[in-house]
Amino acid sequence: MASEIVVLPGDGIGPEVTRAAVATLQAVGRRYGHDFRFQTHLIGGAAIDATGEPLPAATLAACRQADAILLGAVGGPKWSDPSATVRPEQGLLALRQALGLYANLRPVRPHPVALGASPVKPHLLAGVDLLVVRELTGGLYFGEKQRHADRASDLCEYSVLEIERVLRRAFGFARARRGKLVSVDKANVLETSRLWRETATRIGREEYPDVALDHQLVDSMAMHLIARPRDFDVVVTENLFGDILTDEASLLAGSLGLLPSASLGDGRRGLYEPIHGSAPDIAGRGIANPFATMLSAALLLRHSLGLEEEALAVELAVAAALDSGALTADLAAPGQAVSTQAAADAVLERLEPRCHVAE
Ligand code: NAD
Ligand code: IPM
Ligand code: MN
What we know:
Layout: E1 3-10, H1 14-32, E2 36-40, H2 44-51, H3 57-65, E3 68-73, H4 88-98, E4 103-108, H5 114-117, H6 122-125, E5 130-135, E6 145-147, E7 152-154, H7 160-176, E8 180-185, H8 191-207, E9 212-217, H9 218-227, E10 234-237, H10 239-253, E11 260-264, E12 270-274, H11 291-303, H12 308-323, H13 340-351
Parallel strand pairs: 1-2, 1-3, 3-12, 5-10, 8-9, 8-10
Antiparallel strand pairs: 4-5, 4-11, 6-7, 11-12
This protein binds nicotinamide-adenine-dinucleotide (NAD), 3-isopropylmalic acid and manganese (II) ion.
Family: Belongs to the isocitrate and isopropylmalate dehydrogenases family. LeuB type 1 subfamily.
Enzyme class: oxidoreductase
InterPro entries: IsoCit/isopropylmalate_DH_CS, IsoPropMal-DH-like_dom, Isopropylmalate_DH
């Protein structure tokens, strides 16, 4: 049966890295005999320019019909005026909310290349393998917003149901991994965090007594994540804390350009995107790292299409490309960088080795 994949390239480096991820899925389709069908739609700044809306109705309708969605990035200086009423980021947030994608998985498993590229000391990085589960459709991002001439507010709100469902996902992943979950909050100050902590404790006691649950305040967590990253297995947290902690965690991998993500709801349909943004400072130059988006395609294969072997093949091909020295400017030594296209090709040729004619 065919799988319908909606592709949303978006803005900045979005189209450049998305192209590499689509090529990855096409290579997997050919190698394993799957019929993947792609439909490209507008989102973000590109959609604002074409239609006036960051998430046009046609895009949302296509996403609702799809088996999976692959997204590049949205945003950029052209649409960032603080007084703008329509913003690219609203399109992405509306999509996550409309599809009920409340659990955002952000795995961090540094490849040996990180030893050279990360500012973190190499002996701290060996054996790091953590999964951040970020709540994605609640909290400050979606609370009521008010703007007056001389003050503004963003309401942070969470219901027990919203906390429970993302925690169950995180506990489930912890159970299937090394059995450890750290729940990150700011319960010493925030009421939503106290509800979060209470709920985590209850769900842990009643439903996951086999998972070791710890709580950590977000400020000290920002430090522990760098000081002792190996100690963490699954980390679960609310929307804004998860956003910030995962950009920090990208330093463990050596670059923001290496971290993929999967946004999941209760069904199989998911949204797959790198954790980085549209990187306006390097957009259009063919130098962005495509691996975070190619690894997001691997997560798409795993979580929405149930193709574990294929997902692993992509992950191994990316690891082999990194081993071979196919490093873009964010990872390479000065003067040694390869282009987005060359880095992508290093993965694609490992996924689909060319037939060599015997001499
Ligand atoms: P960013 O993630 O776009 O860039 C941060 C830094 O990392 C930049 O120096 C950039 O060049 C570098 N970088 C990011 N991805 C890279 C890659 N694949 N290869 C090499 N280097 C890479 O964050 P920012 O500059 O704070 O935000 C720029 C825009 O992106 C903003 O409009 C923001 O809202 C948007 N954004 C979108 C998403 C998304 O669409 N999911 C995520 C984050 C930020
Ligand atoms: C991310 C981004 C988005 C977020 C923005 C662009 C809305 O930073 O996906 O991490 O904050 O969720
Ligand atoms: Mn972010």
